[in-house]
């Protein structure tokens, strides 16, 4: 039981940290153009 009292708060902190990083990435525009990079590989830059 002592192990759970130690591990549950750590798991909650990790979850909140991951959620905070997700919202940080969302606010900094990391997900603005998810299809652009996938389609950019098919463009031919050579002339």
**Helix content estimate:** over 70%
Number of helices: 2
Q: State the low-pLDDT regions, or none.
A: none
Q: In total, how many beta strands? A: 0
Mean pLDDT: 87
Would you list the SSEs in sequence order as H and E?
Answer: HH
Shape: elongated
User: What class, by secondary structure content?
Assistant: mainly alpha
**How many whole angstroms does the radius of gyration measure?**
20 Å
Please give a handful of descriptors for the protein shown.
47 residues; mainly alpha
Characterize the structure shown.
The chain is mainly α. It has a domain at about 1-30. It is about 70% helix and about 0% strand. The chain has helices spanning about 1-25, 35-40. The mean pLDDT is about 85.
SSE layout and pairing:
Blueprint: H1 2-27, H2 34-40
Task: Give a brief rundown of this model.
The protein is mostly helical and 47 residues long. The model has no long low-confidence stretch (mean pLDDT 87). The N and C termini lie far apart (68 Å).
């Amino acid at each position: 039981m002592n192990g759970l009292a130690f591990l549950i708060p750590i798991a909650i902190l990790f979850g909140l940290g991951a959620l905070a990083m997700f919202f940080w990435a969302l606010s900094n525009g990391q997900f603005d153009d998810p299809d652009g990079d996938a389609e950019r590989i098919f463009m031919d830059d050579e002339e």
